[in-house]
Amino acid sequence: MTTTTTEPTHKATISSLYARNARSVVARGLKATKSTNWVIVLSGFFEPVFFLLAMGLGLGTFIGDVELPNGASVSYAAFIAPALLAVSAMNGAVYDSTWNVFFKMHFGKLYDGMLATSLGPLDVAFGEITYALLRGGVYAIGFLTVMQVMGLNLAWSAALAIPAVLLVAFGFASVGMAVTSYMKTFQQMDWINFVMLPMFLFSATFYPITVYPGWIQGLIKALPLWHAVELVRGLTLGVLDGSMLTHVAYFVAMIGLGLAFTTVRLRALFLD
């Protein structure tokens, strides 16, 4: 009588999801940027700088100082600069993880080729998100340098804004890629801009959240950009308290959920 043994499939399942080679996806993105996309990447750095000059220095001369929750007052430029940094992190991460991924998925058919190799869906997800983080990190360092030259970093903790911005970009990129995996047409992709614009305008970017009624404040505090703005603003202005941990936890949860959904969707679309 012949007996058959069933080998454990756990290791095979893990290896099919993650081959520990996300760096190859990052390398491909960097090569593509160097050859064709460098102008788009460069323009993403100047956008928040232009907003800062126009709103912070221009409109700020009419507004004057802004009072913080701790009672201190700062210039309007110092108030909106960290918010614009957070917005820049969101925009860069969302662009790379939505429109860029959408094209690769439905028109370039790049993921079909990637997943036909030893790469797994988690390699692709990590690779694309890591590329978005590299882009966000360059933006953060450049914009913080501009803020430093203009005297808008008011505390030593402003140096921590760089890892904070990377955390924010990681969260938005993870969720952005997960959402994009469900999109099938350009018309559906327009919903992303429909969501991002209100967040940009109303997440305490240009004025304190206290200008809104209480129930609207509750809605805004549920939005990820508000948590990003408050985290980065607190670091650059030196307003440090326990709420920082809440903001960090919010983005850690975004990252976990985004990666989980992205991995499941990529496997369902290209492997199952």
Automatic annotation (TrEMBL):
Keyword presence, Cell membrane: yes
Domain called ABC transmembrane type-2: residue spans: 39-269
Signal peptide residues on this chain, from the entry's feature table: none
Transmembrane region(s): 38-63, 75-94, 154-179, 191-209, 248-270
UniProt membrane topology term: Multi-pass membrane protein
Keywords annotated in UniProt: Antibiotic resistance, Cell membrane, Membrane, Transmembrane, Transmembrane helix, Transport
Localization annotation: Cell membrane; Membrane
Keyword Membrane: yes
Family of the protein in this entry: Belongs to the ABC-2 integral membrane protein family.
Protein name: Transport permease protein
Organism: Cellulomonas humilata
Taxonomic lineage: Bacteria, Bacillati, Actinomycetota, Actinomycetes, Micrococcales
